[in-house]
Amino acid sequence: MKRPDRSYAAACAARAFLLVAFVVIALAGCTLEPMRGGRDDGPGSAPPGNLDRIADATPRSEPLNPGANSPYTALGRKYVPYQSLTPYRARGIASWYGRKFHGKPTSSGERYDMYAMTAAHTILPIPSYARVTNLSNGRSVVVRVNDRGPFHSERIIDLSYAAAYKLGYVNAGSASVEVEAILPRGSAAAREPRALRPV
To answer: Percent of the chain, pLDDT > 90?
Structure first.
């Protein structure tokens, strides 16, 4: 039996090495990709030039949406949204979502606008308002909750592109935040203690 030429064997070994290296690098790229909830596929082709000047949501009294606040199941887990404005304060991870969902219906039936100051939350009433603070830089925004999500155990809120931009984490994809419900002044709910909820 004739032995293969050494140069041919070396070329085969080099090709195998390059193939393995390519696979390892590709897999590493997948694992190192910032966590973005699989929903924030970019800021859109023509984002407004004045994102810093987009005003926070202005809390106001609104009737709750009965259909959007019914118990529901997502990814095998049951969620029971609050049926009234309730004290809520929790810390966890925020992600954001972008153009893939821009213009599509939210859980409230409204169209998602990635340049509005809105958010998705699993149990806060729809509609309601919350203050979200980026714990790494102290920036805060006020958002209007009009959608459901994120359905990942380690995340507590999904923000619009504009809200995430103003909090300074669009490039990172996610951030540690504190979320606190904003309640009408003088309401019984506003007088209840707002203990930090475990997530």
So the answer is: 57
Q: Tokens 């590493």 appear where?
A: 28
Dump pLDDT digits (tens) for 68-98: 999 999 999 999 999 999 999 999 999 999 8
| CA quadruple 166, 168, 172, 176: dihedral sign | negative
Phi-psi domain of 17 (left: phi exceeds 0; alpha: psi -120 through 50; beta: other): alpha
The answer to whether 40 and 102 are in contact (CB under 8 A) is: no
Q: What is the pLDDT of residues 102-132, one digit of tens each?
A: 888 999 999 999 999 999 999 999 999 999 9
44-61 average pLDDT score: 86
Bin 85: left if φ > 0, else alpha if -120 < ψ < 50, else beta.
beta
The domain 51-191 is classified under which CATH number: 3.20.20.70, 1.20.120.1200, 1.10.510.10, 2.40.40.10?
2.40.40.10
Q: So where are the chain's domains? A: 1-33, 51-191
